[in-house]
Amino acid sequence: MSGDNAVYIASVVATYWVVSISMVYLNKILMSNEGISVPAPLFVTWFQCVVTVLICWLCGLCGQRAQRQVAQYSAVNSSGFDNEGGQSPRGEQKPSFFAQFPKAEYVLVHAKQIFPLSLIFVGMITFNNLCLKWVEVSFYNVARSLTIVFNVFLSRVFLGIPTSFKTMLCLVVVIVGFLMGSKGEINFSLLGTLAGVMSSLFVSLNSIFTKKVLPVVDDNHWKLTFYNNVNASLLFIPLMLYFEGDVLISSTEQLTSTAFWMAMFVAGFFGFSIGIVTVLQIKATSPLTHNISGTAKAALQSLMAFYLWGNQPTVMGVLGIFTVLGGSLLYTFVKMNENAQAAQAPPPQIEHRQQEMASKV
To answer: How many Å is the Cα radius of gyration of the chain?
Structure first.
């Protein structure tokens, strides 16, 4: 079973990388390609949330039909296996892929409990797309490389988890890489970099609060995706109208373009996919590993951008990318070692204190 679990985790992480990189490149096209793009990142993001809601609703309908075919079907857990060693309750028959999707229901009580996470989600994707709009794709990962720093800081604030000296040294390496990459960027954008820093903050908050909110929806990531995107769709409307109303009115040519809406629907599908694979990766690994995976993926994404987008590389800029990646890898090894030592002799009083503080988040 451990081998199967390793394969499952590897497949989830690989899927996250493919979907995330494709999503970044497509969003950059939607916001910077002449003739197709509309300079309205909030509108693009809002549409992706709406498409995600519709896909969740349709999958929920298909799921109801599949569940009727297998009356005793039990929802697929986070490991992706059925309860009876991979076989369904009806012997050889196995539930279809859609059987894992619950009915898309919007219960106001649950929506209110998830609302704080939705606020974080809106902040995360808003600053993310603003950063992508204002900076080069090759610099995008450096601008958002402080996620680990915020994750350590917020874990200490919210969970009371202490920070070791080795961990602090790793964070210094990441920060140095961020500064090197910023200095080496030819087309440096202060606004884009600040948006990247804010995006890093909200990514860390999203990872921590996702774990807390999942029990509200019976630990079902499909339900959480539906609630989160419905809430986000509503939250984006006033922001979109206030900041981008005039832009949308003056962009009638793009808004009536078939190519634009085809790109928007494809981006909407990737918006659904990235929400799913992000939650899957957090559940399959941990918030920390999710952040590490995202940082490593972003490094590859930047190196590819030098070729695909024609961004001019500099020695300092490339060194910044690899310094960030090196600091992230060192941080991973340090945390693995610290967790292994803590597992050998866990202090009960500290563990109880951390659980008590976590309940207050």
So the answer is: 21
**Residue 119: is its pLDDT beyond 90?**
yes
Q: What is the pLDDT of residues 133-167, one digit of tens each?
A: 899 988 888 888 898 899 888 888 877 788 889 99
The residues, ordered by sequence, that sit 6+ positions from 90 with a Cβ below 8 Å of its Cβ are: 70, 72
Comparing CA positions, the residue from 37, 51, 71 lying closest to residue 269 is 51
The helix-helix angle for 287-308 and 2-32 (nearest 10°) equals: 50
pLDDT on residue 37: 78
Spatial CB neighbours of 299, under 8 Å, sequence gap ≥ 6: 141, 321, 322, 324, 325
Partners of residue 88 on adjacent β-strands: 91
- φ, ψ for residue 155 (rounded to 5)? -65, -35
CA distances from 164 to 84, 152, 180, 197 (A): 43, 10, 25, 23
Q: Is 189 helix (H, G, I), strand (E, B) or coil?
A: coil
Q: What are the DSSP calls for 254-308, one per residue?
A: HHT-HHHHHHHHHHHHHHHHHHHHHHHHHHHS-HHHHHHHHHHHHHHHHHHHHHH
Spatial distance between the Cα atoms of 281 and 20, rounded to a whole number of angstroms: 12
